[in-house]
Amino acid sequence: MSILVVGSIALDTVETPYGKVDNALGGSALYFSTAASIYSPVNVVGVVGSDFDFSKIDFLMKRQVNFDGLTVGEGHTFRWGGRYHENVNKRDTLFTQLNVFQNFSPVIPKHYRNSQFVFLANINPDLQKDVLEQINKPYLTVMDTMNFWINGKRDSLMSVLRLVDVFILNNEELEELTGTANLFDGARQLIKEGPKALVVKKGEHGSILITEDKCFLAPAYPVSKIADPTGAGDSFAGGFLGYLSTCDQINQINLRRAVIYGTIIASFTVEDFSFSRLKGLPREEVEKRVEAFREMTSF
Ligand code: AMP
Atom 16 of ligand 1 has which residue's CA nearest to it? Predict the structure, then answer.
C-alpha cells in the first residue's frame, strides 16, 4: 500500500526552553513521510528552492520515500520560525517566508495517482481540492488544516471536508471552524458534512477520535522532556496513516489503534529538535512504547 502526501518542505528556525536550531529541516510533508515510511512507501509532492541541500533528505531517500513529485523552484525554500513558551503547548510564529511555496501548484506524477492512502497536509484548501481531482479514487483520504485557512478560506475548506474520509485538527481549530467550544458538538457538526471520522488533538491532553456514533479517548504518552514540539501534529498524522496502511480494513478498532500509533510516534518527535529523534526510529522501538502505553491505559 502506498501513501501520497502533499505539503510543505521547510527550513525551520525554532527556539524552545531547551535550545535553538537555525534552518533545520522541517515542513509538514517531511514530518509526515518520516513517520509514515516506518510502515509503507510514501510518495511526496512538494517544492523546495534552488538553495535546498538534498543531502538533508538522504535518510528519507534511503527508506521508502519517493521524491519524484518534488519540484525545485527558482528562489529560496520555504522558511518558518517559531518560539515556544515555557509551557511548550504555546508557540508564537516569528516569521513565515513562503518563498517558492507561495506559487506552489501541486502536480501529481502519473505513477503517484493510484496511491491508496492520501494525506493533504496543511496547505491552501483550493490546492487540496486540486490534488483530489488529479488522483484516482484512493482507499482513504485524510486532511489537515490551520487557523489561517479557517479564517481566510472557510468555504473552500468546507468543500474539501466534504470529500475526505478523516479530518485531523486541534481543538482550537475545531472551535474556530464550528463556533462551539464543546468539542463533541463541534465534531458531530463537521461529521454531518461528510467525513467518517474526526481526530481532535489536544496537545499534552492527547486526542479524541470521533465517528458518527462512537468516540475514543487517547491520552498523550508522557515523555520526560519535550525538547521541541514542532512536527508533532504531522508525525501524528504519519503514524496514524502509516499504521492504517498496514491494516486489511478501516474499522473502528483499527482507527483507534491508528490514533495510538500516531500518539506514540509524535511522542518520539518531540523528544529532540527537528528530525533528530524520529529519523532513525525503528519499528520495534515504536512497538515497545505502544506496549508501555497499553499497560498504562488498561484497567
Ligand atoms: P506542526 O508542529 O505539526 O504544526 O508542524 C510544524 C511544521 O509545519 C514546521 O516544520 C513548519 O515548517 C510547517 N509550517 C509552519 N507554517 C506553515 C504554513 N503556513 N504552511 C505550511 N507549513 C507550515
Answer: 80
The per-residue DSSP string of 101-161 comes to GGG------GGGTT-SEEEE-SS-HHHHHHHHHHS---SEEEE---HHHHHH-HHHHHHHH
- pLDDT tens column, 33-79: 999 999 999 999 999 999 999 999 999 999 999 999 999 999 999 99
Q: How far apart are CA 248 and CA 54, in angstroms?
A: 35
pTM of the entire predicted model: 0.97
* Residue type (1 letter), 31: Y
DSSP code of residue 240: H
What Å distances lie between residue 12 and 21, 35, 87, 274, 282, CA to CA? 8, 18, 20, 8, 25
Question: Would the CB of 145 count as within 6 Å of ligand 1?
Answer: no
Using CA atoms of 35, 211, 154, 220 in order, give the dihedral in degrees to the nearest 10: -40
**Using the 8-state DSSP alphabet, how is residue 275 labeled?**
T
Pairing of strands 166-170, 207-211: unpaired
How many Cβ atoms sit within 10 Å of the Cβ of residue 165? 17
Residue 232 Cβ inside 6 Å of ligand 1? The answer reads: yes
